[in-house]
Amino acid sequence: MSARNLRRIMNLWPPFLFCGIRVLEIGDDWRYARVVLRKRWYNRNYVGTQYGGSLFSMTDPFWMLLTLRCLGPGFIVWDQAAAIDFVAPGREDVHAEFCISDAMLEDLRAATVGGEKCLRWYEAPIRTSDGQLIATVRKQLYVRRKRSRPVTGTLRAQPAKCRAAQEIGHARPRQHSSGTAQR
């Protein structure tokens, strides 16, 4: 899927659409994303400022998505943990930007070269259009290289437990519609 198509889909995705979150840009090289949270009557909290859950939601998938696309299909990337620090009340539209650097990717590749997992924290500041810091969201990514799989089309060895059961004629009982097992 192209970055442009993912941006379009995310803008129609209900958790973003119904919170006032709009993905403005995802770089064609998957190294950059920019998101806006527009202040609307339906995404304000009790005191009339940006709802904290929406502030967090606007940043939620981007570190994982961008990192996964940049590293490629040989890697597993998950969100492991997250934290948000509220700095000032959001009284207007706010933006967040995500930038994936060569240094970040090289660090992740080097840390996972032996197949071990790597946990790294990344920050996304949320700011108003004039640059005022509203919140900082930190995400911890879990990154690991995928284990090699057997070549497609080859037969895999059957576990000894299964072979032993077949040799002595103890196949798995069949279930009938009445719920009773019969051999």
Question: Explain this structure to me?
Answer:
By secondary structure, this protein is of the alpha+beta class. The protein has helices at 3-12, 14-17, 52-57, 62-71, 102-111, 160-167; strands at 21-26, 32-37, 75-86, 94-99, 118-128, 133-145, 174-175, 181-182. The chain has a 6-stranded antiparallel sheet with strand order 1-2-4-5-6-3. The protein has a two-stranded antiparallel sheet with strand order 7-8. A hairpin with a 4-residue loop joins strand 5 and strand 6. It starts with a helix and ends with a strand. The model is unreliable at 154-159 and 161-174 (pLDDT under 50).
Write the layout of secondary structure elements.
Blueprint: H1 3-12, H2 14-17, E1 21-26, E2 32-37, H3 52-57, H4 62-71, E3 75-86, E4 94-99, H5 102-111, E5 118-128, E6 133-145, H6 160-167, E7 174-175, E8 181-182
Antiparallel strand pairs: 1-2, 2-4, 3-6, 4-5, 5-6, 7-8
Question: What's the short version?
Answer:
The chain has helices spanning 3-12, 14-17, 52-57, 62-71, 102-111, 160-167, and strands at 21-26, 32-37, 75-86, 94-99, 118-128, 133-145, 174-175, 181-182.
- Strand arrangement in the largest pleated sheet: 1-2-4-5-6-3
Overall geometry comes to elongated
Give the C-alpha Rg.
Answer: 24 Å
SS field, number of helical segments: 6
Give the helices and strands as they follow along the chain: HHEEHHEEHEEHEE
